[in-house]
Design goal:
Keywords: Acyltransferase, Cell shape, Cell wall biogenesis/degradation, Peptidoglycan synthesis, Transferase. It comes from Actinophytocola xinjiangensis. By secondary structure, the chain is mainly beta. The chain has 3 domains: about 80 residues, Immunoglobulin-like, CATH 2.60.40.3780; about 100 residues, Sandwich (Immunoglobulin-like); about 140 residues, L,D-transpeptidase catalytic domain-like (Beta Barrel). About 15% of the residues lie in helices and about 35% in strands. The chain has 4 helices and 26 strands. Strands 20-19-18-26-21 form a 5-stranded mixed beta sheet, with no helix packed on it. A 4-stranded antiparallel beta sheet has the order 1-2-5-4, with no helix packed on it. The chain has a 4-stranded antiparallel beta sheet with strand order 8-10-13-12. Strand 19 and strand 20 form a beta hairpin. It is elongated. The N and C termini lie far apart (about 100 Å). About 30% of the residues are buried.
Length: about 375
């Protein structure tokens, strides 16, 4: 008869032998089979309120991607590519607002064993996507005082710093300038001094997907390319009854004029630097406030939204070159007005001095009425 102790010893030894065999088999399995590929998505499966700007990435560990796709709700593939090392796929186009996208990926491990994974996510749905505009338009040729204007006519911008960071101005020659917010719905870029003549300008506004604040996001990117023309500046010292036109700093044309009534500051042609805003072969100068209607004048060049123009006024011929008698406009003889009209570009500066009143900062374009040091403080980046 064997002793109980001997039985216990034999039993324990048997357990030890069994355990040893099991560990050996798992070790051989770990050494003989490659770990499965591990696929990951960013944004994660089920994510919501995803930015439309952030690239979608599909990555793999312990293997290589053999296929990766991102599909729109319409079933259209989103452009993207697998990296050369086959460890990732990255999207190459922006996404749409408020849409559910589906991604799928296949990867293989070192043994060629496939692993598949699918998922979905949803992009953010803005409370509003207000449109924006940019000026000057493509292929325009403008004067040396022309600012770049980005406007948001459908509502105010709260996050001005974010918007300003998305705006880029590139020039064919070095130009110092800055953005300045004229109000909550308009930001302008102007140079410190007038643009150098013949500068090529390219402006990009990467606004799509950009948060404006208050739940509003940019509707679309904008861009424009335009050219600065020759340097032409009008200078008017109102007591001189004369309008001088300079090209490249040299006197180019000089015309007798009748400017705003000297005695009444409300009728002065105000002091300040403005720009040519529009040109009309025939302008309507009716003003019931002063008792005249159906007044048409030729070769009208608008220089402000305050009411000032440069135009012909043969009815005031007796005062042109002698007396300032207009209601704020610069009156010229018809032939002179036509000659100036033909020479002018939108954006040409008009510098007025000698008056009792100053231009108010209420016009659409008053950038040059602001001193440079003050203009710089109007940037959201200052």
């Amino acid at each position: 008869m064997r002793s109980p102790l001997g039985s216990v010893v034999v039993f324990v030894a048997g357990l030890a032998l069994l355990a040893s065999c099991t560990s050996s088999e798992q070790g051989q399995a770990a050494a003989g089979e490659a770990a499965p590929a591990k696929i990951a998505f960013a944004p994660a499966d089920g994510a919501t309120e995803v930015s439309v700007l952030d690239p979608v990435k599909i990555t793999v560990e312990r293997g290589e991607l053999t296929e990766a796709t991102l599909t729109s709700p319409a079933g259209e593939p989103v452009e993207g590519a697998i990296a050369e090392d086959k460890l990732s796929w990255t999207s190459a186009e922006v996404l749409g607002y408020g849409k559910a996208y589906t991604y799928a990926a296949t990867a293989v491990n070192a043994d060629g064993k496939e692993q598949k994974l699918e998922g979905t996510f949803t992009t953010l749905a803005p409370a509003a996507t207000p449109r924006a505009t940019i000026n000057p338009g493509d292929n325009a040729t403008v004067g040396v005082g022309m600012p770049v204007s980005v406007k948001f006519p459908e509502g105010p911008v709260e996050d001005k710093a974010a918007v300003e960071k998305a705006l880029t101005v590139e020039t064919s020659q070095e130009v110092e300038g800055s953005w300045g917010w004229l109000n909550d719905q308009q930001v302008d870029w102007r140079p410190k001094e007038y643009w150098p003549a013949n500068t090529e300008v390219s402006v990009t506004a990467k606004l799509y997907g950009l948060p404006y604040g208050g739940g509003a996001y940019g509707k679309a990117d904008l861009s424009t390319q335009f050219t600065i023309g020759r340097n032409q500046v009008v200078k008017i010292n109102t007591p001189d009854h004369k309008m001088n036109v300079y090209r490249d700093g040299q006197l180019y044309l000089s015309f007798p004029s009748s400017n705003g009534d000297d005695k009444d500051p409300n009728l002065n042609t105000p002091n300040g630097t403005v720009i040519v805003m529009a040109k009309e072969p025939v302008g309507d100068f009716s003003n019931p406030r002063y008792g005249y209607t159906n007044v048409k004048k030729k070769w009208a060049v608008r220089i402000s939204n305050h009411g000032e123009f440069i135009h012909e006024n043969e009815e005031n011929r007796a005062n042109i070159g002698k007396v300032n008698s207009s209601h704020g406009c610069v009156n010229l003889f018809e032939a002179d007005a036509k000659r100036y009209f033909d020479s002018a570009l939108i954006g040409d500066p008009v510098e007025v001095t000698g008056s009792k009143a100053n231009f108010p900062t209420t016009s659409d374009v008053y950038d040059w009425l602001i001193p440079w040091s003050q203009w710089q403080t109007m940037s959201a980046q200052s």
